[in-house]
Amino acid sequence: MSTDLATALTEGPPLVLDGGLSNQLASAGHDLSDELWSARLLAEAPEAITEAHLAYYRAGADVAITASYQATFEGFARRGIDHAEAARLLTSSVELARAAARRAEATRPLWVAASAGPYGAMLADGSEYRGRYGLTRTELERFHRPRLEVLAEAAPDILALETIPDTDEAAALLHAVRGLGIPAWLSYTIDGNHTRAGQPLEAAFALAADAEEIIAVGVNCCAPEDVPRAVETAARITGKPVVAYPNSGETWNARTRSWDNAPTLTPALSTTGARLVGGCCRVGPETITAIARALGRT
């Protein structure tokens, strides 16, 4: 267990999380219109991933999330990548973030969170925003455990169980992380004060209240306006540090295949009481710098 990170989440000023990895990769000119999304670049352009992490560390992030959100044995297999190579790519996601931390030459501690996205991310059909895949908790645990074992073996500081849409998958993940020797945070994607599948956040966060492996809980990939109430609920129900990294506030227009509305995420996110604050989709280094400044981190 990374005692340093666990301590930092409870003592001193809040920490800064990075922004959207895919956002930074797309800004650098990489095409992510693929079922593997950013995970494809683990094989095809690993240096691009390191550069994206480096941009966020230099922007003020204390913690970077790896490019393993959509990296699964099943997803890689569909592209003809065998189990051994898939495991190597999962491991490399942690190593690339570590390399970026070294290159950042920061005077502050820098940490790596190994991303484990939901089952729906592997399907690449948007179902991570709905949940309820028709699988049992045992089947979901069987899906998640092998990937988590490989990521844990790569020795990240923490596992990021992120963008989880419902309590069934959360319960499966809480079983899947047992005995790995690496702490984790559990982060739901939400709509208002409910998970994307419609469960009240009080019940969703309660699942993690007594889970020893879970050292923080929170929300991500949601509207910025939903964060303050969710942070309060998470802290009240679990008594654990809270992570919050919403989207920019823009909305995707599937008809025009473009983003509508102006961003609503501002440095005011730093005032919600969350202990780890950053951004998700459409949030770039400039916003992370603004959040870091608001927290007095730069």
UniProtKB/TrEMBL annotation:
Keyword Transferase included in the entry's annotation: yes
Name of the protein described by the UniProt record: Homocysteine S-methyltransferase
Cofactors demanded by this protein: Zn(2+)
Residues in Hcy-binding domain copies: 3-295
Chain's gene name: mmuM
Stored Gene3D superfamilies: Homocysteine-binding-like domain (3.20.20.330)
UniProt-annotated binding residues for Zn(2+): 221, 280-281
GO molecular function terms attached to this record: S-adenosylmethionine-homocysteine S-methyltransferase activity; zinc ion binding
EC number(s) given by UniProt: 2.1.1.10
One GO term (biological process): methionine biosynthetic process
Cofactor details (free text): Binds 1 zinc ion per subunit.
Domain of life: Bacteria
SUPFAM superfamilies: Homocysteine S-methyltransferase
UniProt keyword terms in alphabetical order: Metal-binding, Methyltransferase, Transferase, Zinc
